[in-house]
Design brief:
The complex is a heterodimer of chains A (477) and B (1097). Chain A is α+β, with helices and mostly antiparallel strands. Chain A folds into three domains: 186 residues, Alpha Horseshoe (Serine Threonine Protein Phosphatase 5, Tetratricopeptide repeat), CATH 1.25.40; 145 residues, Alpha Horseshoe (Serine Threonine Protein Phosphatase 5, Tetratricopeptide repeat), CATH 1.25.40.900; 56 residues, no CATH class. In chain A, 47% of the residues lie in helices and 6% in strands. Chain A has 18 helices and nine strands. In chain A, the strands form three sheets. A four-stranded antiparallel sheet of chain A has the order 2-6-8-7. A two-stranded antiparallel ribbon of chain A has the order 3-4. Chain A is globular, with a radius of gyration of 25 Å. Helix content of chain B is 11%, strand content 47%. The longest helix of chain B is centred in the middle third of the chain and has 16 residues. In chain B, 47% of the residues are buried. Classes of the chains: A alpha+beta (477), B mainly beta (1097). Chains A and B meet through α1, β1, α2, α5 and β3 of A and β28, β29, β30, β33 and β37 of B.
């Protein structure tokens, strides 16, 4: 009997406190978040985190391995052969895919949950939703131009197991819809550099319209930006002055429209691939996966040495390396104080110079040839590059009458190549203008395998998305 | 601890011995000590008994006394008339008074030896009285190692005259003049009969009865005699574990018992091997067994010094493990530390030194060959040679990098154990120091352990014990695993260019890519790495428990205990400024882990006419809390700061901290029943509530039961006298696994910071795993076993067959990556393990030459029965620059983690690898299996006089190894990596198309293929030892009880076809890994020679 008594006492002493089995994590749960404006804002920040993480390295390094002005070595060499992607690089791209979709997930959560907030005002909610929709549009734009048709995940189908590849046209409609909302509801001036404003939406819309051939739209949006008078080209009188735009500590220059930001605590990784460690640009670091040659590479050898951008962008290796004595490495992105392989330099997605060149391109397209207005925008960029005042006529100016539509587009493309050298934009520009195969053949003497125009849909998407199978893969994989 | 009176024959004292053996040895020692050494009130004087029985038989009265007290009677019913009816009515009387009343007027005589009462007839005593001529005989009893023995029973054969040795091993006995033979007996020792005619002093050396099946086995919340065991439990004695130096208990368990497979993940000092009991049952959850130290669950037993362990019991089948419910699925390892024992103070010192060296140096190219090799690649890829002929001619041997990295390592181990105590208070104290240098410079492991065990009787029925273990571990780590292109010191230790020296002319470390442009920037200078990259951790563990045991009534025990297990851990990393490209980089991680456990257990034991019941019931509560914190800093002004002024860093990383907690509340019960030791049954039940599972799924129920039949005790078996023990066992039970980590069922947000305005701004987003609604993983296990003892148990065989079916397997179900989540967890999937285990122990010789052999072999077959939607689960993707893919696969119908890759088909015309077509196209197929067909070991112990020779062989058969080590070392060309010599001498050229290696070119394309697959079978001489016991008595060193010295060798021989360091490797192994059987630059293993001594005072 005593035994039973003991047992009963012991048992009851515990049953009384069975609620000890309820988990009380010291963490925030989705179900209880998004109630106040501060919380919604805290839910937006990770979208940037995912993008900064996903695009910090290979979204730059792989496209730059497929351009006219560079060569690639090591594990990027297979990319530079233009014959398709090897498994290592397919895998690198699949990591980018994952990060972009996580950013979309985070944006969708905000778009879905912010309107339910009882503490935030209507204006606040609209602004947050606009920011999320801008970033979502940015994500889908990257997906559409690298992978083509991709699953469209909105706030309505976030964890569905079957979401088919959405035709590219529909993707662009969706992107434009998001951006038009953002254009209205985003703030006029940024709360922090790196967060979009109305103008940012216009800049992104410009490139989207250019990509789908809506020239009027592109011209109109880029014109709005120029007309806003909010931006100006950073003046340059010597090569190193360009570091006033690209330097690791520069924040909010007069030409910063919308960048993906990095700093010394969380740096970008693409700079590392352009440097040789025997130089101080990255504090004695560098993986020199990308390089070029002042003699052997046509783009470089034809680049006017008086163009201050040439000396700014390139440095010679002092000696014989990679089978040449005229090998050059790349110094647009530097960070002499870094203590690791990362650099505090931003990824300048939209600078004012981009907008000016977009305008020149769109204006030429819509008028079937260059106008004075369009040429002027191109000249602004060119004048600055030679150390002249961008707004005054200069000896290096182009004249509209020297060009027809095709040759002017070529000219803009060439100028854009120098201006956005090693910014990760060249591959997309060449594809967008439809000159990719031609220019690669011309410079490198290689016939491209068309499969590199679109990347491979990652295996995990094909395997686990019930609406996609092997037959839906992009050609060549 | 009850006897069956009818089985006892007073004329043959084997019955007495058997009875003594049955008793827990500890209690017995306490009892006899009391009698012999202390002038305190004895139990017979203090125990008061009440009886009120009418018309009862003597037998009933004796039983009643036994039930009320700790007395027990020894008698023969042939001599004593136990059916005689008596009436007795006493109150608070001593046993003396009662016996006097009970047997007044009969011829029954009694002798009270503390709690033991021998009843005899008048006759022998009368005979003795009629022979008043007596004499005294004295002597000292020692064991085979020269240690004096307390409590040995000495009886004049054929009489009840006897005594017990005192704490010094001495006895003195008045015997009849004509007594011819003395019988010496002791639990666990062979009984000796010595002719004493004409002798006044008889000293005896007792020999261990090595064939005992009466050992006590820990079974979870209780103990049991091995004889009565129904479940499948293997026991290992502490002595065997400490035979040679092992950093952790897990290392020491390798090969020691059937059904337990231990694989090294790394040869680094202090690394934790992978351990599996009866196969892998979980994909997502842990496959590690539950460790229980002195009754309390812990994560592992690494805090213990091995010499502090008294025994280890491994619970394997469900009828044994189900008492641990939701934690029992992977088996349970119960560690019992040395317990307090009464007696003369005993001091034992164990000490050893050993010298360890790299088992195998790799044969790589020298400087001249390296240049030739590099030129072959450069010519193939670029059409021009890099090195000139004069470079090659002047190169010579160059630098031997391996010699610069590896060293001869010293291991030392010292431990001191002190035990003793009296009737009321016993103690066992211990201290130890273990220090192991690594064979890689600047690595090592050391541990200091302090232990105390105090056992005190507050009064007759309340006992308190306190057990405390303090353990400090320091580990200096260099983790070389998983690198490529010389990215880590180990790969670089043989891949570094032999044509370059470690230092530049100015004394700074050389960076190879500065000298050779084809070398990767990430290719480290191994000397710089070993000298300048420091990572170390320490861990302080304190485990302390207090147990109160009440025994208010005979047979009933109520035990309540509390255990506190606190771990303080700190990890420090510092990369010095001297390391090229680093400006001083520090990282600190510290954590506190608190585990609290309470056990409340009631047991009741009752024995009636051969029916023996034992009932246990109780509850336990367990709580685990982990609070880590970490921070990093880069860029320091001076190396002297290391990581002790992190605030002075140029860049301070984002600090990180978190909180994790889980709790389990359990109720448990067990009933054991046996009838005459022939028919045995047990029923267990446990229910667990876990905080980790969703509401409504929190509680799991884990019943089990088992039956055994000792057929050898049946009458019809008595003819087969060579069978001394034969028992069939059958068990079935259900266990669970708390496979998921805490908070898996809640959609939590984690903090992620983004850069905006050049500053880090914190935010929150979901984790990569979408939460699921989860319940227990459940394992159902059936076990059939046979225990066989032949030739008086000289040969003992234990055989077990089991089938383990695990259902509701928690699985990562992959989500399309476009969902933004990697996966979610679902309770879907089934896995099956079945297998056979054999354990054989035999005394081949047991005369002056003692030869004991022991061997075990285990077969396990694992099969994935069902997965979510038939979806394959792939192992980790390995992204090496020369190959990138996953290797292991979980697929329905296949064993867990098979290797999935391509089959090679020779070379094409350019010396590039071709791959075989499967079903018409080049595709992957299952190319190998990391699971062994069987594992085995063989142990031989040969003793002659003072010498003992032990041999321990251990092996694994039929597993495959996927060797990233060989691949990364030998197949990646164009980056100046120095390969094994065979690559230079056997690669594809137009003249050598059947070569082992392809053409030397950086454009080779590799896939996960059978090229990298090797047979992982091995047999090794794990230990060989020669020990010598110094006969201290003979050389007049009386204060020594014992002195033994020994020399041994570890891993001196290895038979294997595996070409890399060691086939006992599982680089990616661990508790949850499906990435089994991969070798990817694990820290290399050692061989060693050891000298040691064991002294006892």
């Amino acid at each position: 009997m005593k035994k039973i008594l003991f047992y009963i006492i012991i048992s009851f002493s515990f049953i009384a406190c069975e609620d000890i089995l309820v988990e009380k994590p010291k963490m925030i749960a989705t179900e209880t978040f998004y109630t106040s404006a501060d919380e919604i804002e805290a839910a937006i920040i990770p979208i940037y985190y995912q993008l900064q993480r996903g695009l910090r390295k290979n979204y730059h390094n792989i496209p730059e391995s497929m351009v006219d002005y560079l060569y690639a070595r090591g594990s990027y060499l297979p990319v530079h052969r233009f014959q398709g992607l090897d498994i290592t690089n397919i895998n690198r791209l699949s990591d980018i895919w994952i990060r972009i979709y996580r950013a979309i997930r985070d944006a969708n959560l905000v778009i879905q949950n912010a309107p339910k907030s009882e503490q935030a005002t209507k204006e606040e909610i609209d602004r947050f939703v606009a920011e999320a929709r801008f970033l979502r549009a940015f994500c889908y734009f990257q997906l559409a131009r690298t992978w083509g048709a991709v699953p469209l995940r909105t706030e309505h189908n976030m964890i569905d197991l079957a979401v088919p590849r959405e035709p590219v046209n529909n993707l662009y409609d969706f992107i434009i819809d998001d951006l038009l909302f953002a254009e209205i509801n985003l703030p006029d001036i940024p709360k922090m550099m790196g967060r979009p404003i109305k103008i940012s939406a216009k800049a992104l819309l410009t490139e989207v319209y250019l990509t789908i051939g809506n020239w009027a739209g592109a011209r109109s949006k880029s014109y709005d930006i120029i007309n806003s008078q909010m931006f100006s080209l950073v003046p340059v009188s010597k090569s190193d002055d360009f570091y006033n735009i690209f330097g690791p500590k520069i924040n909010g220059s007069s030409e910063e429209v919308w960048y993906l930001k990095y700093n010394q605590d969380y740096g970008s990784e693409f700079a590392c691939m352009g440097h040789h460690p025997s130089y101080p640009y990255l504090n004695g670091r560098g993986h020199w996966g990308h390089y070029t040659d002042s003699v052997k590479n046509k783009v470089i050898s034809e680049w006017d040495p008086n163009d201050l951008r040439k000396a700014f962008n390139l440095y010679h290796y002092n000696g014989y390396i990679l089978g040449s004595s005229t090998t050059m490495f790349l110094k647009k992105f530097i960070d002499m104080e870094t203590t690791n392989n990362y650099a505090a330099t931003d990824n300048p997605f939209y600078r004012y110079a981009d907008v000016l060149l977009f305008f020149a391109e769109a204006d030429c397209r819509i008028n079937n040839g260059p106008t004075n207005d369009g040429v002027e925008k191109l000249n602004m960029v060119r004048r600055r590059a030679y150390g002249f005042n961008p707004n005054d006529p200069s000896p290096v100016d182009y004249v509209a009458t020297d060009y027809d539509e095709d040759s002017f587009i070529d000219l803009v493309l060439k100028e854009r190549g120098y201006e956005t050298f090693y910014e990760g934009k060249r591959y997309f520009d060449l594809k967008r203008v439809g000159k990719f195969a031609e220019i690669i053949k011309d410079v490198h003497g290689v016939d491209i395998n068309p499969s590199i125009l679109l990347y491979a849909i990652p295996n995990h998407e094909i395997e686990y998305n019930e609406a996609i199978d092997e037959t839906d893969q992009n050609p060549g994989y | 601890m009850k006897k069956n009176p009818s089985n006892f024959e007073i004329s043959e004292y084997s019955g007495l011995i058997k009875l003594l053996q049955i008793m827990k040895i500890g209690i017995f020692l306490i009892l006899i000590t009391v009698i012999q050494s202390f002038a305190v009130e004895s139990y017979s004087q203090s125990a008061l008994i009440n009886l009120n029985m009418k018309q009862a038989t003597i037998e009933d009265v004796l039983t009643q006394i036994e039930n009320q007290s700790e007395f027990y009677f020894l008698y023969s019913p042939k001599i004593i008339n136990i059916k005689k009816e008596v009436s007795i009515q006493v109150r608070d009387k001593t046993i003396e008074e009662i016996l006097s009343e009970l047997f007044t007027g009969s011829d029954v005589k009694y002798m009270i030896i503390d709690r033991q009462i021998v009843l005899s007839s008048e006759l022998p005593v009368n005979a003795f009285r009629q022979q008043p001529r007596t004499r005294e005989i004295t002597g000292t009893i020692v064991d085979s190692k020269g240690e004096t023995m307390t409590g040995v029973t000495i009886i004049v054969k054929g009489t009840t005259i006897g005594t017990i040795t005192d704490i010094n091993g001495n006895y003195s006995l008045i015997i009849p003049e004509d007594a011819k033979t003395l019988v010496f007996s002791f639990v666990g020792m062979k009984t000796h009969e010595i002719n004493i005619e004409g002798k006044a002093i008889v000293n005896v050396i007792m020999e261990a009865d090595l064939i005992g099946i009466e050992e006590v086995v820990a079974i979870g919340y209780g103990t049991m005699k091995r004889r009565d065991l129904i479940g499948s439990v293997s026991s290992i004695q502490g002595e065997a574990l400490s035979e040679f130096p092992n950093a952790t208990v897990t290392h020491a368990l390798q090969g020691r018992t059937a059904g337990v497979v231990i694989q090294q993940t790394s040869g680094a000092p202090g690394s934790t091997p992978q351990i599996r009991i009866r196969g892998n049952i979980s994909i997502k959850g842990s496959n590690d067994p539950l460790w229980v130290i002195d009754g309390f669950p812990v994560e592992n037993a690494n805090l213990l010094n091995i010499t502090d362990i008294e025994s280890i019991d491994v619970l394997k089948d469900a009828s044994a493990t189900a008492i641990y419910g939701s934690r029992g699925s992977n088996g349970v390892i119960i560690v019992t530390t040395k317990k307090a024992r009464a007696g003369k103070t005993k001091v034992i010192y164990d000490g050893s030194f050993s010298v360890q060296t790299l088992r195998k140096k790799l044969d790589v190219l020298n400087a001249e060959e390296y240049m030739v090799f590099t030129n072959i690649q450069q010519l193939n890829d670029f059409g021009s040679a890099y090195f000139t002929q004069s470079d090659i001619d002047n190169a010579g041997d160059g630098t031997d990098w391996q010699d610069l990295i590896f060293q001869t390592a010293l291991v030392q181990n010292h431990s001191l154990n002190i035990s003793g105590g009296d009737q009321k208070t016993r103690y066992s104290l211990g201290g130890s120091y273990f220090n192991q240098e690594g064979i890689v410079k600047n690595t090592g492991y050391s541990r200091i352990t302090m232990r105390s065990n105090i056992d005190h009787d507050i009064n007759k029925w309340i006992n308190v014990t306190m057990n405390t273990i303090l353990s400090r571990v320091d580990n200096n780590v260099k983790d070389p695993e998983g690198s490529m292109r010389g990215g880590n010191f180990l790969h670089s230790a043989f891949a570094a260019p032999p044509s370059l020296a470690p230092y530049n002319d100015d004394g700074t470390y050389r960076q190879f890519y500065m000298d050779y442009p084809f070398i990767n920037a990430g290719h480290v200078n191994p000397v710089a790495w070993v000298n300048e990259m420091s990572a170390k951790w320490y861990r302080n563990k304190a485990m302390s428990n207090l147990t109160l045991t009440l025994t208010p009534v005979k047979g009933l025990s109520v035990k309540s205990s509390l255990n506190v297990h606190n771990t303080e851990y700190r990890w420090d990393r510092y990369y010095s400024k001297k390391y090229p490209t680093i400006d001083g980089s520090a990282g600190i991680e510290s954590r506190n882990i608190l585990e609290l456990t309470t056990n409340n257990i009631v047991t009741y034991h009752k024995s009636v006419e051969g029916h023996d019941f034992s009932i246990m019931a109780g509850s336990t509560y367990e709580q685990f809390r982990n609070t880590p914190f970490s921070v990093t800093g880069d860029g320091f002004i001076h190396d002297i700061l290391e990581n002790y002024d992190i605030g002075s860093a140029t860049i301070i990383g984002i600090p990180s901290s978190s909180f994790s907690e889980w709790k389990i509340l359990s109720f448990l019960g067990r009933i054991n029943y046996s009838y005459k030791g022939k028919y045995l049954a047990t029923v267990n039940f446990r229910t667990d509530g876990s905080s980790r599972y969703s509401e409504g799924n929190k509680w799991g129920y884990f019943p089990s039961g088992a039956l055994a039949w000792r057929i050898s005790d049946e009458d019809f078996m008595q003819q087969l006298s060579f069978i001394s023990n034969m028992k069939f066992r059958f068990g079935y039970g259900i266990t669970g696994s708390t496979a998921i980590s805490p908070y898996s069922t809640v959609n939590l947000l984690t903090s992620e910071s983004a850069v905006l305005d050049k500053q880090l701004i914190p935010g929150f987003d979901p984790r990569d795993t979408y939460p699921g609604d989860l319940k227990w993983e459940t394992t159902e296990q059936t076990n059939v076993g046979l225990d066989l003892g032949l030739l008086k148990n000289r040969v003992q065989l234990v055989a077990d067959y089991y089938v383990k079916n695990t259902r509701d397997l928690l699985n990562d179900v992959q989500l399309p990556s476009s969902s933004g989540y990697n996966s979610t967890i679902k309770n879907i999937g089934r896995i099956q393990n079945k297998g056979l285990e054999f354990q054989l122990d035999a005394f081949v010789l047991d005369k002056s030459l003692i030869w004991k052999i022991s061997s075990n072999i285990s077969f396990n077959r694992n099969k994935v029965v069902k997965l979510y939607d038939g979806q394959d689960i792939t192992g980790t993707w390995y992204s090496l620059a020369w190959v990138g893919d996953y290797i292991n696969l979980v697929r329905e119908g296949e064993p867990l983690g098979v290797f999935y890759g391509y089959l090679e088909d020779g070379y094409d015309d350019n010396g590039r690898i071709k791959f075989k077509e499967v079903d018409g196209e080049i595709q992957r197929t299952i190319i190998g299996d990391p699971n062994p067909d069987f594992v085995y070991s063989f142990n031989s112990n040969l003793s002659y006089k003072n010498f003992t020779l032990s041999i321990f062989l251990q092996g694994v058969q039929g597993n495959d190894i996927f060797s990233f080590s060989v691949g990364t070392a030998n197949c990646d060309y164009g980056f100046g990596l120095n390969p094994l010599s065979e690559v230079l001498y056997d690669h594809w050229t137009p003249q050598n198309t059947d070569a082992k290696y392809p053409a030397i070119s950086m454009t080779n394309s590799y896939r996960v293929s059978d090229r990298f697959l090797y047979d992982g079978s091995y047999l090794r001489l794990k230990n060989v030892e020669l020990a010598y016991s110094i006969p201290t008595n003979n050389i007049g060193v009386q204060w020594f009880n014992k002195a033994q010295i020994y020399v041994s060798g570890q891993d001196l021989l290895m038979f294997t076809k595996y070409p890399w360091y060691d086939p006992d490797v599982n680089t990616r192994g661990g508790s949850t890994s499906i990435n089994q059987g991969i070798d990817h630059f694990s820290y290399p293993t050692t061989k060693g020679i050891m000298f040691g001594m064991r002294l006892e005072f």
